TrEMBL record:
Pfam families: Flavin_Reduct. Keywords: Flavoprotein. InterPro entries: Flavin_Rdtase-like_dom, Flavoredoxin, Split_barrel_FMN-bd. Residues 10-153 form the Flavin reductase like domain. Its cofactor is FMN. The lineage of its organism: Bacteria, Bacillati, Bacillota, Clostridia, Peptostreptococcales. This is Flavoredoxin Flr. GO terms for molecular function: FMN binding; oxidoreductase activity, acting on the CH-NH group of donors, NAD or NADP as acceptor. PANTHER family: FLAVOREDOXIN (PTHR43567:SF1), FLAVOREDOXIN-RELATED-RELATED (PTHR43567). The gene is flr.
């Protein structure tokens, strides 16, 4: 037996993406966006869907660039704040004390204190409904050294990404490993 919830945004969990951009005057801005994810492996692309009335939308269209920043659970309050106020009204970096760093490859800032920063060049815009999907071609991924394992690879536990539950509106910490990908299903391949 299942309970029907109708047409809702309940694909669990959603990532917590903090989207970095510069405005027309070069001022750093960031917003919280949970509607997004990897959308192509070749070319490597990530998507984020935001509303056209957001300052970030204008910034990305103007600069043709943005960053996707993954906060750790240590910065949940800052990440949440980035989604509560508009960059038209307040300097979010000044209020939170976080540090915008000029992207190396694109004209957009990343957040120094967050463990992962993905630099993106705007690849495509897709109008969907109340949200507009911005697809960014990934030109570089930066991960803090303290979030790498002994082999120099990303360690998801050290990254400590924040997850979001749509409709319920909770933030969650990353859990424990459940299985190895492309391995657990081998038992059905005999």
């Amino acid at each position: 037996m299942r309970k029907s919830f109708g047409a809702k945004t309940m694909a669990y969990p959603a990532p917590v993406f903090i989207i970095g951009s510069y405005d027309e005057n070069g001022k750093a801005n960031a917003m919280n966006a949970a509607w997004g994810g990897i959308c192509s492996s070749n070319p490597p692309c990530i998507s984020v869907s935001i509303r056209a009335q957001r300052k970030t939308y204008d910034n990305i269209v103007e600069k043709k660039a943005f960053t996707v920043n993954l906060p750790s659970s240590e910065h949940i309050a800052e990440a949440d704040y980035f989604g509560m106020v508009s960059g038209r009204d307040v300097d979010k970096f000044e209020k939170t004390g976080l540090t915008p760093v000029k992207g190396e490859f694109v004209d957009a800032p990343y957040i120094d204190e967050f463990p992962v920063a993905i630099e993106c060049r705007l690849h495509q815009i897709v109008e969907i409904g109340v949200h507009i999907q911005l697809i960014g071609e990934i030109v570089d991924v930066k991960i803090r050294q303290d979030c790498l394992d002994e082999n120099g690879q990303p360690d998801i536990v050290k990254i400590d990404p924040v997850l979001f539950t749509p409709e319920i509106r909770h933030y969650l910490k990353f859990g424990v490993k459940a299985a190895d990908a492309f391995s657990a299903g081998k038992k059905f391949m005999e």
